[in-house]
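Data's thin. Show one?
=====
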Amino acid sequence: MKIDLGDFEAGDPFDGHYKKALRKLQKRLSHIQTAHIIHKRRAIILFEGWDAAGKGGIIRRLTADWDPRYFEVWPISAPTPEELSHHFLWRFWRRLPAQHNIAVFDRSWYGRVLVERVEGFASDAEWKRGFDEINDFEAQQAETGATLIKIFVHVTQKTQDKRLRDRIDHPWKRWKTGLDDYRNRAKRDAYLAAMHDMFEKTSTEAAPWVVVDGNNKKAARIAALTAIADALEAKVPMEPPALDPEVEAAARGAGVID
């Protein structure tokens, strides 16, 4: 399916009671995580998108009711010297989840075909080869039973500028912005071209892209969490486990239950 980011710029508000819808989704996601723990499934959720698109806010609400022992959020920044000495996927292999765990990537291996391409950190040969390498990597995860969910949060230049301005105006948000935001902003057309290629070449049957209109934060959070819950739920049995007879007997013996 062709993806046109222009189709995700309406910024419509959430049509409903936001807090109630959010709590319902978070409860659902809590049950889904429990199902992954019980059935020893693993999942990988990655977020890409513009600076100030709202990825962090979505991730905080996604994981709000999750047991911290069974998930990890990986914020991905520039590779370290050690990581640069290996294949670009090496640092992501090391962060893949074990059975009954969920890994959340705040940015990901798609840096090879986005920021590394646009900023010249990878050669033309490297980033062009990256499409096939990424597809193979993701196919391997699917073949070994992992659920892979790829969320791209899109905002217009107008929305991004407003949020960057808010970060400057708010003293406790200034740490969230830096020169990279403005370097990337100045190259929006180049990033749009890279994103177009990324969607075209890496939205596969095993790992399709889901684009979220991030121009209204509340609507974006509900849309992203719903897409994630639907995708996770489709790959794991959702029946709660029966009570272990030995545990039940012990509980009765202790007077905990009748």
Q: What stands out?
A: The chain has eleven helices and five strands. The CA atoms of residues 58 and 221 lie 5 Å apart. Residues 5-253 form a domain with the Rossmann fold fold (CATH 3.40.50.300). The chain has a mean pLDDT of 96.
